[in-house]
Amino acid sequence: MLQCKRVVNEVLSTVDFVAPDDRVVFRTCEREQSRVVFQMGTSDAERALAVARLVENDVAGIDVNMGCPKEYSTKGGMGAALLSDPDKIEKILSTLVKGTQRPVTCKIRILPSLEDTLSLVKRIERTGIAAIAVHGRKREERPQHPVSCEAIKAIAETLSIPVIANGGSHDHIQGYLDIQDFRQATAASSVMVARAAMWNPSIFLKEGPRPLEEVMQKYIRYAVQYDNHYTNTKYCLCQMLREQLESPQGRLLHAAQSSQEICEAFGLGAFYEETTRELDARRAKLLARSPEEVEEPAEDTSGIIKMAVKFDRRAYSPQITPKMCLLEWCRREKLAQPVYETVQRPLDRLFCSVVTVAEQKYQSTLWDKSKKLAEQAAAIVCLRSQGLPEGRLGEEGPSLHKRKREAPDQDTGDPRAQEPAMPGELCKKPFLALASGKESPLEGW
């Protein structure tokens, strides 16, 4: 999350937190803003605060996971590993409470002794957190071990802040009424349900759970409408099917390698195609509203010199590209080599690059389908602004010193494809995803 940029996704009407490699790490929307609590894994107070401040305007609360026993979490000092370091727990929670505008909570597991557990939760309470969730199992215990309602109850009777009971799925919670029974058995203020809610989210309906087929179809529709990655959708559906994974439908789900194939496995192929068309139409509408780009050079308030140019590889010699010409000119003038900063917008996955030469920035206002093409366009803007040759066929200019040839640009179809490092790119920064603006939610979502 520390690497992510906050992006308003106008197509989906969501707020996305996007990593430099274009992965959406966290996606939320206005509908859940007053309900969703952001839980993080962390082992560092300042890093935790940086993430909390990044998301605090889009969530209802901030939670720190101090109970996950999985190795991927504990080996980094996160999750249940924090239980053996009360000083670090205190620093993380105190820093968050003081530094964020949202309520701060944490989730823990019980320690080997009740005395140590009560000592820890008292110290946690003094940090000023709003509530504490307690998974009634020890760090080494797994779902097959019984949950200790007695330990949760002792904690609830000791603390003045709300205690949220967790760990009752299957043994205690199989329906809505069981949630209340588990709350009473633990004397907790409320109950956190994890596995049972994954098996069938309609467990929260007072009138009773809905048929699994109906729940799965509704979940798939949400997943497609909000462009959830198919691997996550597939995992959640597998959790719902459980013992039915060997059924014909379960086998189709297991074999699915895309959201479309998942939809087809559940008889939602037509819905997928209709939704995809609607989202494509939204993208096209948003793109069509962009103003016409001017052809003449212009300098905006940010000091970037801009032109509407593109790199057409057919107009250039395969041995000479604008980037090579710019690099060679910088060397002759004893200037620092060009630095390229490239961004990608999620709306249409196109790229734009800014090149800095002698503390001046240059950019093409036209977006390109690959990072390399966008960088060549930025180089063209710089060269044309300086009245320099750019390597076009038939163009006369000073010859380049013989050096490693830059490979012709090729569109691989994957904007994240690895590219060899080229001269002038040693200081190049990774591209970032970005977008702006706001759109009302789709009807019926």
Automatic annotation (TrEMBL):
SMART domains assigned to the protein according to its UniProt record, in alphabetical order: DSRM
Pfam family, one: dsrm
Domain DRBM: 322-387
Span list, region Disordered: 390-426
GO molecular function: flavin adenine dinucleotide binding; tRNA binding; tRNA dihydrouridine synthase activity
Keyword DNA-binding part of the UniProt annotation: no
PANTHER family found in the cross-reference section: TRNA-DIHYDROURIDINE(20) SYNTHASE [NAD(P)+]-LIKE (PTHR45936)
Designated name of the protein: tRNA-dihydrouridine(20) synthase [NAD(P)+]-like isoform X2
Organism, as annotated: Balaenoptera musculus (Blue whale)
